[in-house]
Amino acid sequence: MSRPSVAIASLGGTISMTPSAAAGGVVPKLDAAQLVAAVPGLGELADISAEPIFQLPSASLGPEQLLACLAWAEGKVAGGARGVVLTQGTDTIEETAFFLDLYWRHPEPLIITGAMRTPLAAGADGPANLLAAVQVAMDDQSRGRGVLVVMNDTIHRARWVCKSDSLSVQTFVSPDGGPAGRVVEGQPEYFHPPVDRPLASPPTRRFPKVAVVPALLGDDGDLAVAALDLGYEAIVVAAFGAGHVSFGFAAHVERLSKVVPVVIASRTGAGATASRTYGFSGSEVDLARRGALLSKWLHPLKARLLLGALLAAGTPREQIPDAFAKWGTLPRHSPIQQQPVP
Ligand code: GLU
After folding, report:
1. What letters, b where the CB count within 10 A reaches 16 and e where it falls short, cover 236-256?
2. Tens digits of per-residue pLDDT, 64-111?
3. Class of domain 200-328 as given by CATH
């Protein structure tokens, strides 16, 4: 029986970083083929192709690079790959995974992995993460789940995954939806069947600048106003609690909403924005009345990418609320008819 083919591309990140005396620390150096060579037995598991696409710290990835990765991955599945794996820096995985998931229209799994420890560190996690990523990419159970992040033998959906710790190997969490599954003895095991995912239309123009402005104690969000002068085309407010800002910030939200889309997301890192609980000036009810959109379950970083994608696809302003809501709200499930045990 022929082995499944899995295509791996490297983008840089800690998984690829080795020391440089000149730089004063580690820098991206190893490419996909070298990462594959560090995983014993990977070549026996699947027919692996390995290509370097970028050699970057993940802080310097952006829409342009990610759209190039998307085109690369689409080419690989069109050529018969059962799944594709991207290795990159973990700093921005929660954003890159969501960005790619907005556009990934294929049943084949697109897996992102990386490492928290450099390849030369004791207990380097890169090889184990790459092995697990390939095991997930080649398994039929992974089909139809969009973009998945595999780190530390845990599988996360792009929709929920967040980096929760600056240096710990156990950094990725999915605070609201929970992890999709685990890799157990080399095999992915999923907690739930795949769910329908909304998809964004492909960009028809350059990705716009979308600002994330936090609500902060004693601050009226003047930065949100300045953002407009800097050419930002939409604003996400990383609001207090369930979607709250100060009186002064609320007045800015009203003025700004007349000009650009303004989305209110929670800065807490978990939970949804409310919609009908608080009525004070600057509350979620008040901000919605002033013209802002409430992001519901979408956290600020992901709301920013979605707004950017909607604008990049040329979505008319009046259609943005409905388009945005497809990601912010959770699908309602039809009740399961329980079959009696005979
Ligand atoms: N901790 C990051 C990593 O795991 C630093 C570098 C980056 O994100 O590229 O890769």
Report:
1. bbbbbebbbbbeebbbbbeeb
2. 999 999 999 999 999 999 999 999 999 999 999 999 999 999 999 999
3. alpha beta
- Tell me: the pLDDT tens digits for 231-252? 999 999 999 999 999 999 999 9
Q: Given 14, 90, 96, 154, which residue is catalytic?
A: 14
- CA dist 146 and 166 (Å) reads 26
Gap between the Cα atoms of 252 and 287, Å rounded: 10
Measured by CA distance, the residue closest to atom 8 of ligand 1 is 89
**Other Cβ atoms closer than 10 A to 51:** 13
Is 14 an active-site residue? yes
Supply the pTM of this predicted model. Answer: 0.96
Q: Judge whether 108 and 77 are in contact, CB under 8 Å.
A: yes
Residue 29 CA to residue 12 CA, distance in Å, equals 7
Is 23 buried (19+), middle (13-18) or exposed (0-12) by CB count in 10 A? Answer: exposed
- Closest CA to ligand 1's atom 4: 90
Ligand 1 atom with the shortest distance to the CA of 13: 9
Between 3.40.190.170, 3.40.50.1170, 3.30.450.40, 3.30.70.330, what CATH number should domain 5-194 receive?
Answer: 3.40.50.1170
**From CA 39, how far away is CA 133, in angstroms rounded?**
12
Ligand 1 closest atom vs CA 12: 9
- Alpha carbons 130 and 89: distance in angstroms, whole number: 13
Q: Is the CB of 306 under 6 A from ligand 1?
A: no
